[in-house]
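Dear colleague,

Following up on yesterday's call, I've attached the two folding results inline so they're easy to grep. Please treat them as preliminary; we haven't cross-checked anything against experimental data yet. The first protein's sequence and structure tokens come first.
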Amino acid sequence: MQSVLSREKVIELLKRLLEAYSPTGSEFKASRIASKEALKLGYEEAWVDDQGSFHAERGGSGPRVLLAGHIDTVPGFIDVRVEGDLIYGRGAVDAKGPLASFILAGLLVEGCRVRVSGLAGEEGDSRGALALLASKEEFEHIIVGEPTGLSIVIGYMGSNPLVIECRGTGGHASSPEVGDSALSKIIEAYESLKASARSSAMTMLRSTAAAHNVLPGSSTAMIDVRLERESLSLVLPRGCRVRALSYTPPVRVKPQAPIVRALQRAMLSRGLKPRLTVKRGTSDMNILASMTGSIVAFGPGDSRLSHSNIEYIKVSDVIEAAKIVADALTLICGGRL
């Protein structure tokens, strides 16, 4: 374990991944580099699929396990540099640091077939995860690589961004109670969302009126909606319509799921206190959860640094995460849960 997880080798792997700039839609180069690094480290197979996702496998019989990180990042290049225990670069936290910990962890496990994937498009349309889902491949346990600060994420909210468009006949602004304001209708529709959505935020509002003293005749709003359950209630006033830009279902796994218990035991054995959390955002876990009930998100890194211009991760945290994941898989593959 010490040779694979030596600080020098971990930094080398991180630098190779971070120096391959891979904003969403431009993942192929980074995935080819990740594939070469995996083979060099000892994986039996490594390849890049037609979506631009990276995959590597090793191991024999036993449970089939997927460690699913993502290779794409948000745009914005950050010079890669090492300062003490910190390594800077776009994707250091979200989520090439967690992916590196998965690549390292997979080398330390015996008794099962381990697939490590750096999926494409997680910051966009999740095309890598959707392609993996469509492949009908089967995995008994899945860990999704995200910067969780070494907490065990057992759930994510769903996402359902909406566009609401309303029209009204207008009227004099001095008598809004007798007029027909498209803007008032938008606000009424937005208020109705709050009863069923875990959170909702109006991120865009456009309204037109002929003059400052005329009620608007048309209004459009974009609402970012986060869901705890799959149903959503929306009361639309007359003259309004709604369309969904996308839909990602919420996910929640039981704390008793095997992969959850394995990570908890692995952390306890290392003197760490396990924390189970539910995130308000979404990740590829929302998509991949239909493949197995034994799924979590886990990884090193402070999520508050995600997408920022000072994105960095601790090398020691990447190493610690690799050890935890390797220990957890060893428990599962050895049937010791």
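Below is the second protein, in the same order (sequence, then structure):
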Amino acid sequence: MRILLPLLLLIAMQATGQVQDWNPEPYPDKGGIRFNDDLDFFLNGYTKGEIKAMRREVNIWRMNFDKMIRATIKDIQAYSEGGNMVPATHDFTLDEVRNGLPYHLAAHRGKLRAFMTVSISNPPARAQLPLWDRLLAKYDTSKVELFVIYGRELHPGDKKKFSKYPVPTTMEQKTAYAHELAQLTKLPVLVDRMDDQVFTAYGRVPNGAFVVDGEGRLIFRGTWADSRKIEQILDTVLKWEADGRPKLKARP
């Protein structure tokens, strides 16, 4: 019952809370700029209609009682309470699915980097893809890099929508899923390891969002990706740098 109640709230919440509750004001941190985290357990960054549409794609009964789904809910809830992740940049090198070339996070210092964790059986992540595609078109790639990391399936094998996507047992199978997701977006798609190395380092959240600045500092983390927050953060950092990095007020 303790899991069922928050899950029902997750499905029923309207879209106003996340945007209103998140404070977008930046503050100084180690000589740079940082933003308040958005560690909200509830999926409330979408309209009621959007949540209903996502709900139709998955089996709510299975979400309540399936052992794997319940473990995922515990992971999300732990992260939303501020645990389950060391709040710092975790370096990685992962292959991009379209060209097979390795992408090394630390090798791209000097650029703002924003990324989210995704999977093909993750309705919120799929909903975010076209919104992040718009961000990709907006920003100068010499200053900003956006990409996704293909991690763990959120609803593997669920209902007709995701019945073709059980939990992958080989890297080839996981990469094949990532290839299919890449057809839904213009974003670079990096593929995590079979042991979920990057997914675990960044808090084990199926659709988390993260921003790393040009110096390699993690300046934002969110339990659920929200393109509006990412855009707000990127615009703020770019303007702050263009204005000569003026001094910021410390958090009270």
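For the second protein, one point worth flagging: Residues 123-138 form the longest helix (16 residues).

Best wishes,
A.L.
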